[in-house]
Automatic annotation (TrEMBL), chain B:
The chain crosses the membrane at residues 20-45, 65-91, 103-121, 141-161, 247-275. The keyword Protein biosynthesis does not apply. The complex is composed of two ATP-binding proteins (CysA), two transmembrane proteins (CysT and CysW) and a solute-binding protein (CysP). It is found in: Membrane. Part of the ABC transporter complex (TC 3.A.1.6.1) involved in sulfate/thiosulfate import. Part of the ABC transporter complex CysAWTP (TC 3.A.1.6.1) involved in sulfate/thiosulfate import. Probably responsible for the translocation of the substrate across the membrane. The keyword Disulfide bond does not apply. This is Sulfate transport system permease protein CysT.
Length: 357, 282
């Protein structure tokens, strides 16, 4: 009996100390958090250094390493202030969750509008963020292409070729990888055009496609490894920028095939309003994202195999990207991300249906 | 027997510091195990039972239980037989680089599981060194349930070896010598003298390896093809639910796994106690 009351007391003490620790910890973070010096705007006086955190997804690592240098110079020139940018990369959905659960990002640059929207739902981003920057807050875009082995031995030139029996397809799982949803939707958009909107036939088309999938990796990078390093499959459905990176790393082994129709993949950027308010980094965060649309930055994005959203600069890269491809847009074709997620990827929705017997 | 018990009880009160150490134990246990586990229940508190039941009995999820549990069971069986052999070699024989082998046993503990997963996948894929050999007889390892089992064997082996090794080390060779003198065969000695001694330890190893294999994500996810109804493991479904921001479903399935792991470990403990009782009684 004595022992029991002792343990109960200890449990209480443990809970209290945990609460205390959390308090101290948040306190520390609060005090030590990066933030701009409010005063010090006077001319000639150097402004205190400002720090911002950009929470992004996996394939943008190299792009932002280069862009951050570009922006640091730009900010130094226009404002005379040093800016330090912390980058964080991981799966897009995981990154969104980390921000929701307390990673104090100033800006998010994620793969899916839906992931940014989850952060909004958690109350950290203001409503209407999609309109905050031009082109639906997507400074660069990409699309879904086929990566095939050199000389395209199986003659895979369009979506209708890869649903043929005997073709092995590698693509990540749309249920675990947000980016993989573009792959599914691109194929669906093709089938939709092919069958004039007959949903049953489109579903059958996707069923054939996913019956050909031999490995359904949990993420995009994993799928690339499966195809490129482990030599599985005849075709990898990949983001254009990822496909270019694979070719750059393994010259002469692969080819990019752009299908006749694909989807306009728009990675979204947004300011995390609640955090910039707390850090006092509103101005620099806004400039950081706005500068992504500048000519210099657009060219940098093109060099990193993202399609610049500025049409004139995109044309400069016409020898890199296949610009003849018809690109459907998620809003026009699927009525936006929320509707598309609901219709295709929710539990028991079309993606689950094509796999169930 | 009785006097021994009394002595032990008296000793407890004589040794100082029980209160303090017990307090620290409970505190640590609360901080690291109990409170996080309670938070699982807390997340579930706004889910109805019908919703919970639907989440855990969904057709695709049920298929993953089948894959996870059957592969984990096979892996644990392999681990016990193979682990006994390994522990035997390490305790009974002297050979060069023995300490190196001894150290290697724990590598699966130290290695980041993703590294192990990627390495195993590459090695056992039909283009890899070992996988190519099996491909000739039309056996695919990576991206199938065989691959999943291999990854589970890899992460489970230290549990078995490290459970059995100390028991074998303490085992007095005199019993075996006596049995030999009395004319028992090597096999009979193993079954009647050695096996009963190491059985409780082997069971512990089996339980730990099995429980760990069910929950293993990092190494298995790379080598599994993740094809629904075929090669998806349960932890992957949890990740998939999280990716859809469906915390309730993820936690529901997590709770099922916690319960299973607990039942396995508890069952093994009960079994062990029973074996010990029989051993003492005879």
């Amino acid at each position: 009996m004595k022992n029991k009351s002792l343990s109960a007391k200890k449990l209480l003490a443990a809970t209290l100390s945990l609460a205390l620790m959390t308090g101290v910890f948040t306190g520390c973070v609060g005090n030590g958090s990066p933030g701009a010096n409010e005063d010090g705007n006077a001319d000639g006086k150097a402004l205190a250094k400002v720090e911002i955190t950009n929470v992004s997804y996996d394939p943008t690592r190299e792009l932002y390493e280069q862009y951050n240098k570009l922006f640091q110079d730009y900010w130094k020139e226009t404002k005379g202030q040093e800016v330090e940018i912390t980058q964080s990369h991981g799966g897009s959905g995981k990154q969104a969750r980390s921000v929701i659960e307390g990673n104090e990002a100033d800006v998010v640059t994620l793969a899916l509008e839906g992931d940014v929207d989850e952060v909004r739902k958690a109350g950290l981003i203001n409503d209407g963020w999609v309109q905050e920057f031009s082109k639906n807050s997507a400074p660069y875009t990409s699309t879904i292409v086929f990566l095939v082995r050199k000389d395209n031995p199986k003659k895979l030139n369009d979506w209708s070729d890869i649903v043929k029996p005997g073709i092995e397809v590698i693509t990540p799982d749309p249920k675990t990888s947000g980016g993989a949803r573009w792959n599914f939707l691109a194929a669906w958009a093709f089938a939709d055009k092919l069958y004039g909107g007959d949903e049953a036939k489109s579903k059958l088309f996707l069923k054939k496609l996913y019956a050909n999938v031999t490995v359904l990796d949990s993420g995009a990078r994993g799928a690339t490894t499966t195809f490129v390093e482990n030599g599985q499959g005849d075709v990898l459905l990949a983001w254009e920028n990822e496909a270019f990176l694979a070719i750059k790393e393994h010259p002469g082994e692969f080819e990019i095939i752009t299908p006749s129709l694909s989807i306009l993949a728009q990675p979204s950027v947004a300011i995390v309003d609640a955090n910039v308010e707390k850090h006092g980094t509103e101005e620099v965060s806004k400039a950081y994202l706005e500068y992504l649309y500048s000519d210099e930055a657009q060219r940098l994005e093109g060099k990193n195999y993202y399609r610049p959203s500025n049409p004139d600069i995109l044309k400069e890269f016409s020898d890199v990207f296949d610009l003849k491809v018809t690109l459907v847009n998620i809003d026009d074709e699927f009525g936006g991300w929320t509707a598309a997620t609901e219709k295709f990827f929710a539990d028991g929705a079309i993606f689950d249906q094509i796999y169930s017997k | 027997m009785l006097s021994l018990k009394n002595k032990r009880k008296r000793n407890n009160t004589v040794i100082p510091g029980f209160g303090l150490s017990m307090g620290i134990t409970i505190t640590m246990l609360s901080l690291i195990v109990l409170i996080p586990l309670c938070s699982v229940l807390l997340t579930l508190s706004d889910t109805t039972f019908a919703g919970f039941w639907q989440n855990i009995t969904d057709e695709q999820t049920m298929a993953t239980y089948k894959v996870s549990f059957s592969c984990a069971l096979i892996a644990a069986v392999i681990n016990v037989s193979f682990g006994i052999l390994l522990a035997w070699i390490l305790t009974r024989y002297q050979f060069p680089l023995k300490s190196l082998l001894d150290g290697l046993i724990e590598l699966p503990f130290a290695l980041p599981t993703a590294v192990a997963g990627i390495a195993l996948t590459t090695l056992y894929s039909d283009k890899g060194w070992i996988g190519a050999l099996f491909d000739k007889i039309d056996v695919k390892i990576s991206y199938t349930t065989i691959g999943i089992t291999i990854a589970m064997v890899f992460i489970g082996i230290p549990f078995v070896v490290r459970s059995i090794q100390p028991v074998l080390e303490k085992l007095d060779p005199q019993f075996e010598e006596a049995a030999t003198v009395l004319g028992a065969s090597r096999f009979r000695i193993f079954c009647k003298v050695i096996l009963p001694e190491i059985l409780p330890a082997a069971l512990t190893g089996f339980g730990l390896a099995f429980a760990r294999a069910i929950g293993e994500y990092g190494s298995v996810v790379f080598i599994a093809g993740n094809i629904p109804y075929k090669t998806q493991i349960t932890p992957l479904i949890i990740m998939s639910k999280l990716e859809q921001f469906n915390y309730a479903a993820a936690t529901s399935i997590a709770l099922v796994m916690i319960l299973f792991a607990f039942v396995i470990l508890f069952g093994i403990n009960v079994l062990q106690a029973a074996i010990n009782k029989v051993a003492r009684g005879s």
